[in-house]
């Protein structure tokens, strides 16, 4: 245990969305974090209804604090063509953040509060951190309908001219009892907007969703990814 680590609580300003299942995107070049586009209304706090869609950035000050500001406000016309999703695959790196699939439900946006069931959202969206813009890309290289979620996306900076995004596990929502296996790893390259498929070998873990995933550069120009926990869709010892 590292007893030197200090945790500080930083209050969000009024108007910043309080979300569960949200993503935090990091712009390494400018040392800025982005939040607000993915997730659902928080189970805690004073915002019981889903907050309007917006993108906020946080700039650390290097002393345990920092400052928030809104980059794309809720009344920006960009939101006429976009919606916040929950459970999608998402990661950031190389100046971009990606969101693949996910669902729209009564807790994602004010406009979706009257939905009676989840609505699958197909496609791949890229957020360009320099232009502060969103762009559509094809997700058919992932599956025919471009839908899925509750798995993990991870950015590997050391492969390719601008890094690679890996998509692993989760479900395509076609069958509540069926998970996407780890025998195939989907790879996305942002510069050419191309999908690749990598067959896994070795002791392949069982399919699951809602797991933890982390990675780090290793020896001999390799990269290691660690998977922990998760849920196979059933209660009991197997979960």
Structure description:
The protein has strands at 19-20, 25-27, 32-35, 40-41, 55-60, 66-72, 89-93, 96-100, 103-104, 119-120, 124-128, 133-137, 152-156, 164-168, 184-189, 194-199, 212-217, 223-228. With 239 residues, the protein is mainly β. It is globular, with a radius of gyration of 18 Å. The two termini are 28 Å apart. The mean pLDDT is 92.
Question: What is shown here, in short?
Answer:
This protein has 239 residues and is mostly beta strands.
- Secondary-structure-based class equals mainly beta
Q: Please give the radius of gyration in angstroms.
A: 18 Å
Overall geometry comes to globular
Strands, total number: 18
SSE sequence, one letter per element: EEEEEEEEEEEEEEEEEE
Write the layout of secondary structure elements.
Layout: E1 19-20, E2 25-27, E3 32-35, E4 40-41, E5 55-60, E6 66-72, E7 89-93, E8 96-100, E9 103-104, E10 119-120, E11 124-128, E12 133-137, E13 152-156, E14 164-168, E15 184-189, E16 194-199, E17 212-217, E18 223-228
Antiparallel strand pairs: 1-4, 2-3, 3-5, 5-6, 7-8, 8-11, 9-10, 11-12, 13-14, 14-15, 15-16, 17-18
Notable characteristics:
single chain, 239 residues, mainly beta, 4-stranded antiparallel beta sheet, 34% strand, globular
């Amino acid at each position: 245990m590292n007893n030197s680590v200090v945790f500080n609580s930083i209050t969000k300003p009024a108007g910043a969305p309080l979300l569960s299942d949200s993503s935090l995107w990091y712009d390494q070049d400018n040392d800025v974090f982005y939040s607000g586009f993915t997730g659902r209304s928080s189970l805690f706090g004073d915002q019981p209804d889903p907050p309007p869609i917006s993108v906020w950035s946080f700039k650390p000050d290097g002393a345990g604090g920092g400052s928030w500001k809104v980059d794309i406000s809720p009344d920006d016309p960009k939101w006429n063509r976009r919606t916040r999703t929950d459970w999608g695959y998402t990661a950031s790196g190389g100046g971009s953040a990606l969101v693949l699939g996910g669902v729209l439900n009564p807790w994602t946006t004010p406009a979706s509060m009257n939905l009676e069931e989840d609505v699958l959202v197909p496609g791949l969206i890229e957020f360009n951190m320099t232009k502060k813009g969103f762009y559509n890309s094809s997700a058919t290289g992932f599956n025919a309908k471009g839908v899925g979620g509750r798995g993990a996306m991870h950015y590997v900076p050391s492969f390719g001219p601008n890094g690679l995004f890996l998509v692993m596990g989760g479900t395509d929502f076609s069958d509540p009892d069926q998970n996407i296996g780890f025998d195939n790893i989907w790879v996305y390259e942002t510069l050419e907007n191309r999908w690749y498929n990598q067959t896994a070998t070795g002791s392949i873990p069982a399919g699951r969703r809602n797991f933890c995933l982390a990675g780090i550069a290793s020896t001999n120009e390799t990269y290691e990814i660690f998977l922990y926990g998760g849920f196979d869709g059933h209660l009991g010892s197997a979960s």
